[in-house]
Specification:
Layout lengths: L6 E7 L8 E5 L4 E5 L6 H11 L14 E6 L8 E5 L14 H11 L6 H29 L3 H7 L1 H13 L5 E3 L8 E3 L2 E3 L6 H14 L6 E6 L7 H14 L3 E6 L14 E3 L4 E2 L1
Helix pairs in contact: 3-4, 3-6, 5-6, 6-7
């Protein structure tokens, strides 16, 4: 049976570049914010850890040489995780054969060829969102059959809170989630919109919130590389709090340049790359 970790306790990297800069980073179970000037190695640290994990999250057999992580509990050998980047480049030319079905689906949905990195993430998250709803629905039915009305109602609250949050964030543009649909769609002044028609900042925020929601309160590590790049400053301020609200068991590990990200009481969770570097 796979034993999943609750969170990462420590990241150690023998050499960040060319045998230089030994990294030792003791992590908080909830929020970890890595700061530093451009080129100091923030993204490289995240990339090395994520690249070393298998697609299913197994370690240490899949960890890169010179990269080690300690987890809680110590004997766990798997970890649930994801990496969110701020990039929204067009990836039409970079599709592999295995991605062709996604490209065809996006073409049909968008009416244009290809899509962007954010579109691909949204497409995949839509599938996870459907699975999440089926899972929640089955558990609600089970509770109702047992006569546990309060428990059944509680199970539906997290999805409703997610929808309320998105409506609140998008209110200035008049967009609202259509709550009668199983897939995520929006209305705006009487017109129906697909998620792929949102702005880059809206897509980015939707992806982050969906990613933590569909994990269904399971322990989960969310790596984010400068997630604030396309986000409104007010969204940056709320980003960490909203993630923790939708999944209190998520461990956030992110890089940032933005002071707004830490404004809501997270300043004590900021680590400079120089603070964890042993030359």
């Amino acid at each position: 049976m796979q034993k999943f970790a609750n969170y990462i306790k420590k990241i150690e990297i023998d050499s960040l570049w060319s045998g230089k800069k030994h990294i030792v980073w003791e992590l908080d179970p909830k929020v970890n914010i890595l700061s530093g000037i451009n080129g100091v190695g923030k993204s490289t640290i995240l990339n090395k850890v994520v690249k070393g994990l298998s697609a299913g999250g197994e370690f240490p057999s899949h960890m890169l040489k010179g990269v080690r992580i300690d987890v809680e509990p110590d004997d766990a050998r798997w970890i649930r995780y994801d990496l969110i980047r701020s990039l929204d480049s067009n990836i039409t030319a970079s599709f592999s054969d295995s991605d062709s079905s996604i490209r065809q689906a996006l073409t049909a949905l968008n009416g244009i060829a290809g899509g962007s990195q954010l579109d691909i993430q949204l497409y995949q998250l839509q599938r996870k969102y459907l699975d999440y709803q089926v899972n929640i629905g089955n558990r609600i039915i089970d509770q109702l059959q047992q006569g546990n009305m309060d428990a059944a109602q509680q199970l539906s609250q997290k999805k409703k809170r997610f929808q309320d949050i998105v409506d609140e964030l998008f209110t200035d543009t008049g967009k609202h989630i259509i709550r009668t649909e199983n897939e995520i769609r929006f209305t705006q002044i009487g017109e129906q919109l697909m998620p792929y028609q949102l702005s880059s900042g809206e897509k980015q925020m939707l992806i982050i919130l969906l990613t933590v929601l569909v994990e269904d309160d399971q322990p989960y590590v969310l790596f984010m590389d400068e997630p604030e790049v396309s986000l409104h400053i007010e969204w940056q301020k709320r980003l960490i709090d909203l993630c923790l609200e939708l999944n209190p068991n998520v461990q956030i590990i992110l890089t940032t340049h933005s002071p707004a990200v830490v404004m809501n009481g997270w300043m004590d969770h900021v680590t400079e790359v120089s603070d964890i570097t042993v030359v």
